[in-house]
Structures are given as C-alpha cells and as structure tokens.
Design goal:
The chain has 10 helices and 8 strands. It is elongated, with a radius of gyration of 28 Å. 36% of the residues are buried. The protein is 45% helix and 14% strand. It is of the alpha/beta class. It folds into 2 domains: 1-41; 46-306, Zn-dependent exopeptidases (Aminopeptidase, 3-Layer(aba) Sandwich).
Length: 315
C-alpha cells in the first residue's frame, strides 16, 4: 500500500512540474514576443495609417460599398490628397492658372459614369480595406472636386455587369449597358446636361504619366466616335476641353483620339447628347494619387467650360 501511495505522490509531483514548465515556456514566449514587437513596431498616427491602408488597397468589392461608406469624404480628402496630408507628392499643392469664382448650384448638372466600371489603376492588395483603385473610385474623386466648386454631380453606382447579365450581353456590349443607365439618370434628374464617361488607358506608364513642377500626373486623352451622326459637336467639345487642359500644361493631354471602323464602338453613346464626352485618365500603371492630381485640374477645366458665356443648358 505504501509503495502505491508513494507512486501516486511522485506522479502528482511530476504533473505539477510539467505544468510549471509549460507555464514558464508560455510566459517566456509572451515576454520575448512583447520585447521584439516593441523593438520593431512602427508608430503611425491615425491619418497616416488610414492613408497607408487606402493607398495600398486592392480587392474585390461591391460597387455600392464605396458610395455607402460613411467615411467616404474622409477617405477621399485625407487619403487621396484632396486636402493636404503628409504623404509624399500628394501633399504638394497642385496649382493651376485657372481662377474660379464659385457660384451656387443645387441641382445636379454633371453625370459621371463608367462604361468599363472595373478598369483598375496600380495598387497593392490589403484585405482589411475592401476598396479597388478603379475608374469608379476616380469618378467619386472628380465628384468631390466638382463639389468644391459648387458643381453638383451624380456618379452612377449601378453595376454595369448586372445590366449585362440581366440582358444576356457580353462585355463587348458595355456601352449598350451604360446607355440604359444614362437614359435612366436623365429621366430621374432632368437638370443633367453634361455627361462624362470616365475610363483609363492600357498604355505604358511612361506614356500615361507626366511630371510637372515635381508632381506626377496621369495624362488625359479624349476619345470621340466618328460613327455618331452628330459627332462634330462632340468633337468640338473634346477639342475645347483639350485646349483648356493644354493651357495648364501642353503635355498633360495626349490629345483627341478620333475613332471609327471595324473593332471599335465608334459612337460611345455620344449620340445621346452633344455634351457627352469620353475621357481616359491615365493608364493601368498609374497610381490613384497621380489620377487624383489630374482630376483636380480637370474639375477646374470643367468649371470653366460650364460657366462660359457661350454655354447653354439643354432644354
């Protein structure tokens, strides 16, 4: 009996020693981890951290996610440089020779849409922030800049893919899909009289980027479809805007591209209105900061055009 009790006693002592050893190892690991973490951690203030997350984000998203974010204004203003923040090139003031006097305008007059809604810009994926740097996001940046000039605009947030799928159409019918949304927007907002289809090009970074006074911009190109029966008016509009861009810097614009023939759309919904314009801002290798810098200039150009004496609203 005594041997049996001694055996149980030794077993209990062994178990206690093992538990103490395990607890010691865990405590040692935690203390070591805390020490190393404090050594290598980078201290960031909230604005810089959010800026890092947004700038380097790339992921799949529902197109309505961006427009429904309560913090959208903050993200646009403090992450993309619409207001100054210490994040490299973006905090430099993008100057422009275009001086503006801001009128009061309550009704939306500009409609911004993306026939190719998922065309993306250069970015890195961080799953924690579910945002894509695409032309859709660029549309909201342009909307913000126009709002700063008291020009009320609408960004189309319906999903082009949903329209394609609902009609059994393939990607090549994207302009047919955006036409449905375009007509709908006009019915719901009769005050609209200027329509921007925002795209990006697929050319090389060198071709779609320009540096002006130490600030990098995504270059602009206007596209006009010559198979539109009334293309002359749309061409005149593109040329007018192109000249205004060149007044800021002659190299910021890549010019006006006239397209027709086999393999191209040739109309681009520009038969909808003589004030329908297709603008390509930068290319797939441009950063959202470079796009942002350009859109700030583009907003002032649009403001100037919309307030010219010879500009008449559609009836």
């Amino acid at each position: 009996m005594k041997h049996r009790f001694k055996g149980k006693k030794r077993l209990r002592k062994g178990i206690i020693k093992l538990l103490i050893l395990i607890l010691g190892l865990i405590l040692s690991f935690l203390l070591t981890f805390k020490y190393l973490f404090n050594k290598i951690s980078i201290k960031l203030d909230n604005s810089k951290y959010l800026n890092y997350l947004v700038k380097d984000t790339y992921g799949t998203y529902n197109l309505n996610d961006i427009s429904s974010l309560s913090s959208l204004d903050f993200l646009l203003k403090y992450s993309f440089g619409i207001e100054n923040i210490d994040n490299g090139l973006v905090n430099k003031e993008v100057s422009s020779p275009i001086e503006v006097e801001v009128p009061i305008n309550s009704d939306p007059i500009v409609y911004i849409f993306n026939s190719h809604q998922t065309e993306g810009y250069a970015t890195n994926f961080i799953e924690a922030f579910n945002i894509n740097n695409t032309v859709y996001l660029a549309s909201y940046i342009l909307k913000e800049y126009l709002a700063d000039l008291n020009i009320n605009s609408i960004v189309e947030n319906n999903n082009i893919v949903d329209v394609l799928n609902a009609n059994g159409w393939k990607y090549g019918s994207s302009y047919k899909a955006s036409r449905i949304l375009l007509e709908n927007a006009k019915k719901e907002n009769p005050s609209l009289n200027f329509y921007i289809d925002l795209h990006r090009d697929s050319s090389s970074y060198e071709r779609t980027t320009i540096e002006i006074d130490g600030i990098k911009y995504a270059r602009i190109m206007f596209v006009v479809g010559l198979e539109n029966p009334g293309y002359e008016a749309n061409l005149a509009l593109a040329q007018n805007l192109n000249e205004k861009i060149k007044a800021f810097n002659k190299s910021l614009s890549r010019g006006v591209l006239e397209k027709k023939g086999k393999g191209v759309n040739g109309v681009y919904n520009q038969d909808f209105s003589p004030r329908t314009i297709l603008i390509e801002v930068g290319g797939q290798y441009n950063s959202i900061e470079e796009v942002n810098n350009t859109l700030k200039v583009m907003a002032k150009v649009l403001y100037t055009y919309l307030n010219e004496d010879n500009y008449e609203k559609e009836e």
